What does this fold into?
Amino acid sequence: MEQNPLVSRPLPVLFGQFVGPAMVAMVLDGIQGMVDGLFLGRYAGPDAMASVNIANPFFQIIIGSTMILCTGTMSAAGRALGAQDYSRAKNLYRSALAVLLALSGTILLAGVLFARPIARFLGANEVLLPGAARYVQVIACFAPVIAFKIFFGFSGRLAGRPRLYLAGTITTLCTNVLLDWVAVGLLGLGVTGAVTATGLAYLAGMLVAAPPLFHRSSPLNVFEGSFRGREIFFAACNGASEGVTYVSAALTVFLMNRAMMSFAGEDGVAAFTVINYAGNFVTLLMFGMSDGISPILSSNFGAGRLDRIRRTKAAALAGNFCIGLCLCLLFSVGGRPLIGLFFTPGDPRTSQVMDLAVRGARIYSLSFLASGFNIVQSGYHTALGDALRSVAIAASRGIVFLPIGLAVFSALFQENGVWMAPPFAEAITVVVCLLLRHNPHPTDT
It folds into this structure.
């Protein structure tokens, strides 16, 4: 077996081969998240767009549960491949496939059978309930497809195919745009058309990402390996930080939607929806940085190359700060044209929603100055198998400090206080990262 390129190749080359495609793929994922909003906002109105955002946490649950297995498995398998323990890597991969199939099937049944109660729990009122429930029901039908598209795409990085996820994501995006245009723009199918387009787009992306993992010559493939319950349990525990990250994202949307509903009604939810679409675009770019360096970190940790780990982490932190600074400046000086992309020009109601969104974006965007740092720190600990630190950082961002910020600042500043909560949560999480700071030593490997 030839030497692992993740351990031997120069780091700038690996950044181009792994981090670059991962970031582009995540950017395209961000654009895809905006596609439904763009078409629904222009062709079906603010209520349709808001109903999709109300139901978005259910979609995040699908992705988050996948990421628990995906990230934990890739971290453990990467360390095994770095240590040349190929049998263990294949056992982990085969076990993850079985668990992911069972998990996504359970989510499918729950979404189909309990769509309306789920939508009500997520905060839908009588105006938004039909669209939100429909979204939950249809996206649940595609849960296994979404899960395996992500899993196969991430697997390609350890299998020596770092552009696999990017190819699948490009296919997903192009298919989604085309089907949204037909279903929402031409046929007027609203939320049902948009969510069906999203599900079919993920199916197209999965068909592109999956084939290389069906080759026995790949170091990770669907044929080799045995189920190891204990190993996959510990791998999933290590990947729990990614699940917590997506639970945090879902909780953020859930709490922000409820807060905006109480202060500004459907218009407030629509305003947050637009900001959330744009914010997710940049957040996913930051996650692309973190995901791209993960196989580099885990493989070099398994090989004991700690100098390469430190240099990789430093480059990722600097890159994410620059990304966050750019978005913060963009929202401060050019937020209105960006937000205007989501609305039909000249509509009196959308003009009011735009005013809410522009004011909120200037405050909300401050969170991106710190979020990139926190995302890399959490991913760094996951890649090295340090689950507790990773989970603590991920939980601090959305589960612990965001609700505290919402309770305190909304009571003091009403609507403006809602926008202040995310910057507060990210700033406090930076302090948590510094308190949990840990540099690996040769004995750790």
In short: The CA atoms of residues 79 and 420 lie 40 Å apart. The chain has 16 helices and no strands. The chain has a mean pLDDT of 81. The chain has one domain: 9-444.
